[in-house]
Structure formats: structure tokens, C-alpha cells
Amino acid sequence: MSSRCRASFAFIAVAALVAGACNREERHSRAKPIGETVPAGESPDTIWPGGTVPQTLDPRAKLYDNNAPAISQGQQLFTQMNCVGCHSHGGGGMGPALMDDEWRYGGRIDQIATSIAEGRPNGMPSWRSKLTTDQIWQLAAYVRSLSGQPSKDAVSSRAEAMSNATPQTLAPREPAHTSDTAEQ
Amino acid sequence: MQRVEYLFTALGASAACAALSACNRSPPKQQLGSATVYQAAPVGDHAVAAPAASPADDGNWVMPGKDYAATRFSALNQVTPANVSKLALSFTFSTATTHGYEAPPLVVKGTMYLITPFPNYLYALDLTKPGAPTKWVFKPKPLAASQGVACCDTVNRGAAYDQGRIFFNTLDGQTIAVDANSGQQVWRTQLGDIQKGETITMAPLVAGGKVLVGNSGGEMGVRGWIAALDEGSGKLAWRAYNTGPDKDVLIGPRFKPFYKSDQGKDLGVKTWPPEAWKIGGGTVWGWPSFDPETHLIYYGVGNPGPWNPDQRPGDNKWTTGVFARDVSTGEAVWFYQTTPHDLFDHDDINEIILADIPWKGQRRPVLFRPARAGFFYVQDRRTGQVLSAAPYGYVNGYKGVDLKTGLIIPNHDKDTKVGRVVRDICPAAPGLKDWNPSAFSPVTGLVYIPHNNLCMDFGAMQANYISGTPYVGADVKMYAGPGGNRGAFTAWDPIRQRKVWEIPEDLPLWSPALVTAGGVVFYGTMDGWFKAIDARTGKQLWRFKAGSGIIGQPISYRGPDGRQYIAFVAGVGGWAGAVVSAKMDTRDPTGALGFANAVKDLPMKTTAGGMLYVFTLPR
């Protein structure tokens, strides 16, 4: 966490004023435009024949992970794009649960973004042609919040609409899993 | 009591309903798992199965409903209340699947056929040899992606046998005919399109030289249909949509609905907002019946889409109702809409039992429908006229059925609205009873209804239509209804329209029922108990604990050795059991469209896994 704050030099002034605020409120309206395609997959795998290939986190991950506007946008998209119909509010149904500590295809934000963009063979649709890259990363940021990964001050305490589900701020943080180690 | 009820019927259905729900509020003291007797079983003249649709039992079990009348009644009588406790396991067989197993085994001339959930393996087991070894396996290889558009687990509700062939559907929308002896494919027809969210989960009905199949996907914004394939070639003979213009619905000069509300031109268009009928649901995933005498099929139509009713003002024809159609041409003959402008996902796809009953001094050919909305309908099957409709459990979402207009009487206190969470709606979305069929015994004249007792909170919200994704627009949370029991097994007198006995069950009851001439009823529970009950008294006579929860249909057949066998496949799942089979996280109350909240304890009570169990009496 602290290393990320130092790296985000554009916000040093803000960080100095509000200790720990970090980049959670950062909006990318003036940032350089991000390409409209997600590069072919961050691998969800953990076995590399011939030796370990060091996994580097996609640089865009930092812009979205733990970022309140991104998580909030993702939350809206999660309902609008009907993700909620399959995954419910994280409990699952037609699709797998997203609030637990089991990740079939990796729980890192870039791995989740890849799952959303490319789809997965047992029923996850490929959203690459329906959503922008920005939206895909926002969704991935929100999906990570379902298992309590972002800090509590980055997530929304209520949904956009009336809901039977528990607020995000009450989601317990699930333990990290094997394919998530790169970020820890 | 009988006279009182007749009086109330005379005063009007809503009064009768009020009286009955008043009865429900102060029932006799109930104990989970044991029967409360409400009345004596009827004696004398009672209902019998429609004769032409229920030929003499030959000891086989060739279609899920047992016969065209959908009785699920076995005429075998070696197993009786006196000896059922001696039933012993004969053999078992693992299906190699871990999703919900809703189908019955079929038995034809010494071979048993099993159709599994996705990936829809079809097994043939040789009953003439010890241990019933596998004769052949047919693997249809459906598209893996179809699992992602199946709303409520990747189930399959059964196969059907006719003239040396087994017919079944695959999750990705194909109908396949396989030679029953060799296991070789005879034909294969693609009917559904998963890109649109269509799957096929129902069991086909083979009748009048046609194979009848409908689509699933009422939660995905599909347009519902039923299709008839030529039994010999698999070629499409006709397809009738359940929404849209009359020509698509195959409504023509023969269409004579009994009630005014179902009469008019192109109601499948006019009762919807512009274009909404194209994505309006009205699927067919339940249980068609067939009357060979009139050459008509009867089938129920599923819910309109999306669940959020504000997006589809109007009656939403021809969803949530029953069609009678000519099996050869598909022409509609009558229709009755059970819940116009459905508010609660009360699909009307439940089983339709064909029976002849004494009614006001005459014999009437009728159909029995324990509907999802909570009323037990007795309807003239020639016209669709509702003769009676009484609630068979606790209902507050509706006030009754008006027998003059045929219309259900809404309870506006429970009207759903965008931006509001309406609480305590009973029955919940799965209905007082969902897909799992009842059994009817012509011996006792009773219908044995396995059902739920669930209520829900319903928060409607705007749904966006994106093809191939869910089109629901509701946050739902379900929980146990009055009494705290989530399921019940009810013996129902269809003529006097009242309970004879009832067994409250802790968990929702998701298995179909079987009744035998020997006087024993069988059903299973979601925690894996397979139960034998005295058909007259409701007394539990025997039970067996299976390795997984039971949602599959039990059957009875005569083995090659002449003995009576009882068989079922365990394997928890389906909408109710998805918390286990789909490894859901039950902390989210809205999981599985709100069912997760009602069965949070299920993962501690059972585990997934398909397994066949077959029992017989020792020699």
C-alpha cells in the first residue's frame, strides 16, 4: 500500500493532506487514453513448464484497484450489463460465486479483467465487443470488492437501487489465494 | 365442513379462499416429517385417470409421467404398506455427474435408461444381468457454453421411449433420437439457440407420431415456443410460439377460449408494449399431456420476461397459462391464462393430470393442475372451463379465483413496483409448487402433491435486454412460509378440493412423487431421505438415506424376474439445490434468484453427486 502511494507522485500533495487517502478517489478524466482492447490474457495458471515465469501485474491494475470511482462505476455496470442475473450480488447462481475465496480463473484484477473480456468456456460470455476496456477494468475492480479485497473506504456503502443484498462495506475480506500472490 | 365449503363456493371464490386461508392460519398441530390428517379419505365414486390416456400397466416405465394422463401411478402391487419396510437395495449406479438430477429412470423390456444433467449422457443398463451392467452409453456432447445460459442448474427432466427409440433433449437445444437396442443415433435436430439464451431442459413427449419439445430461458428474454418433430425423421412438423401474432401462435378458426379475457385477435402482440413480445418469455419447460381421444396436447406456458412487471404492462399473452393444441397440426383449440400480467415468476408449466370425475351428477373429462400460483385447478379439458380452484397451501399473493370470469383475483397489497421492496409475498417465485410433478392414484382418488411453503421479498428494478444474458430485473429473497416448514407433502382430494393429510417437510420439497396400486407413495427430500408413505393415512412406513439430496423422480417397474422394483436417482441441485451443486456462497441472500436465502443450511445437510438406487423385496 505505502509503495503504491509513493509511486503515485501526482497525488503526493493530496496524500500528505489526507493520510492514507492514496488514489482511491483518483478519476482518470485527464489521463492518457487507454487502448480500447485488452491484451490477450493474463494467465490464470500457476504452473510453468521449464520453470517459473515471473508474473508482472498489468500496469493498468493500479488505476482501478482500490479506486472508488472505478468500483462505483463497476457496480452500476454489474447491474446494467446483467452480470447480477448470473452472479447475483456475489453469491452466484447461473454463474459462480464471486464473494468467496475460490477463483477458477484467478482473482487478480487483471485476471478478472481477462475473464470478462475473453469469456470462459463453461458459460462466461466474452464481453470484449460489448464493453470498453475502461468499463471492463471498472467491472473487475467491483468484482474484487465482492470478496472484500479493496479497502473499506473505497467501496460504496449502498447500491444504486433498493436491494436485498448486504452493503459492500460489510463484506469480509476473503483470504488471498494462490494466483493472487503477485500483488501481495 | 363440507357444507360450509359448498356454501362459500356459492358466495364466490374469494370468500371461499378467505375461509381456506383462515383455516391455514390455525392448522392442527403439525410435526415435521409426520402426517397430520385433516379428513377421511374419500369413499365411493371418485376420480379416475382418463381411460384412453392411461392404458393397462405393462410393468415398464416409458415416459416421465408414466402415461399420457401423467398419473405417475404404477399398477404394481407386490409392495404394500405391510411389507414396504422390508425393501432392500438391489443395485446402485453412479451417473458421473454432480448437477441436479431431476429425471426419472426409464425401463423398457429389461433395460433401464438414464439421462443425466449436462453433459446429458444417456446410459442403458441391462436389468437381466446381476448388478445391471452398462449396455451402452451415448454422449451427445452439447456445447459447454450452454451451461452459462441455463437459469436454474443444468438439469434435464427426462427422456421418452417409443417404438424402439429413446428421445431426449440436450442443454444446448438439440433433440436426439437414439436406437434403444444399439445406442446408435437415429437423428438429431437443432431447435434452440444458446446465443439467444435458449436451452432445453424438459423431457420430450412422444405422442401422435410427433416428438414435442419446448424451450427454456424465461429468465433470459427468449421468445417461448413448443415444437413438434416428426417421430421418424426428426424434421420439424410445426412450431407454435407463445407470444406474438396469431399466425405465429397457430391461432386460427379452431381457437375457442372459454373466457372473454382470452378472446380477441393478436392478443400475443396487443397485450404487450411494442416489440416486447419478441423477448417476452412464455417458454415450455414442463410437462405436456396428451388425450388420444381428442387428439389434443395440453401444456403449460412459463413466465413472461423480465420478472420486473413494470416493463411489460398488459396481460402478456400467452404466458403463464395452459394451451390445448391439436397434436398433428399444432392449432390452438383453447387457452386459459392463470395469472394475467404475472408479477411473481409464477410459470404455469406444472404437470397436467388427465382424469374423469363425477361432477354434479355427470362424468366430466377434466384436467388437474396444482399450479405454481397456489391453486389446484380442476378444468374441463374439452373447453378449459374452470370447475374449481382452491389453494392447497398458504397463499396471500392472490385472493382467489373468480369462477365466473375465470380470472385470478389479485391482492394489490402485494403488487410489485420499481424502487420498492414488497415483503412477505406467498407463494415465492418458485410457487407453492414448482416443476416437480404430483402423482395421482385412481385407487384412492387422491393427488399426492410434493410442494413448497416459501414466501419472498421482491424488489423490482429496470432490466436491460442483452441477448444471451439474464433478463430478470428483480432482487429476490426467499424464506419459509407460515409454520416454518419450507416444504410439504399433501394428499389432496381433487373433487372436494381439500387436504386429506399433509406431511410438513423442513426443506423445500423438490422431488416428484410416485404412487402405486399397492397403496404406497414415494418421494425424496433434499437432504437425501427417500420415504415410503401409506397412501391412505400419510403414515411413514419406511425411509432410506441416499448419498445426496433427492430431486429425481421415483418410478416402479416389473423386473425381468417378475418382481416389483422401486428406483430413483439422487443428486441434489436444480433451482432449490444450486447452492450445493453450483457451490454458491449463501451469505448473499439474493443468490440463485433469491433461493439461496431459503436454503442456507443445505450445504451442511447434503453434498452433490448423481447415484441411482434400486430396491426390491427380498425373495
Q: What key attributes describe this structure?
A:
heterodimer, A: 184 residues, mainly alpha, Cytochrome Bc1 Complex, Chain D, domain 2, 7 helices, 0% strand, disordered C terminus, B: 619 residues, mainly beta, Methanol Dehydrogenase, Chain A, 6 helices, globular, disordered N terminus
Global structural class of chain A: mainly alpha
Provide the CATH topology of chain A: Cytochrome Bc1 Complex, Chain D, domain 2
CATH topology of chain B: Methanol Dehydrogenase, Chain A
**How much helix, percentage-wise, in residues of chain B?**
under 10%
- CATH architecture tag of chain B: 8 Propeller
- State the shape of chain B: globular
Number of discrete domains of chain B: 1
Question: Using CB atoms under 8 Å apart, which protein chain pair has the greatest interface?
Answer: A-B, 32 and 42 residues
**Major sheet summary line of chain B:** 5 strands, antiparallel
Low-confidence stretches of chain B: 1-25
Q: Tell me which oligomeric state these chains represent.
A: heterodimer
**Cα-to-Cα separation, first versus last residue of chain B:** 47 Å
Cα-atom Rg of chain A, whole angstroms?
A: 16 Å
Count of runs of 4 or more consecutive helical residues of chain A? 7
Description:
The complex is a heterodimer of chains A (184) and B (619). By secondary structure, chain A is mostly helical. Chain A has one domain (27-183): Cytochrome c-like domain (Cytochrome Bc1 Complex, Chain D, domain 2, Orthogonal Bundle), CATH 1.10.760.10. In chain A, 32% of the residues lie in helices and 0% in strands. Chain A has helices at 2-7, 12-17, 61-64, 68-80, 83-87, 109-118, 133-146. The longest helix of chain A is centred in the last third of the chain and has 14 residues, at 133-146. Chain A is globular and about 50 Å long. Chain B is mainly beta. Chain B has a single domain, classed as Methanol Dehydrogenase, Chain A (8 Propeller), CATH 2.140.10.10. Helices cover 7% and strands 33% of the residues of chain B. In chain B, the strands form 10 sheets. Chain B has a 5-stranded antiparallel beta sheet, with no helix packed on it. In chain B, strands 2-21-22-23-24 form a 5-stranded antiparallel beta sheet. In chain B, strands 3-34-35-36-37 form a 5-stranded mixed beta sheet, with no helix packed on it. In chain B, helix 1 packs across helix 2 (13-25). The radius of gyration of chain B is 22 Å and the shape is globular. Residues 1-25 of chain B have low confidence and may be disordered. The chains are: A mainly alpha (184), B mainly beta (619). Chain A binds chain B through residues 79-82, 84-86, 88-97, 99-100, 102, 121-125, 130, 161-166, and chain B through 144-152, 219, 419-421, 457, 459, 461, 463-464, 466, 468-472, 475-477, 578, 582-594, 596.
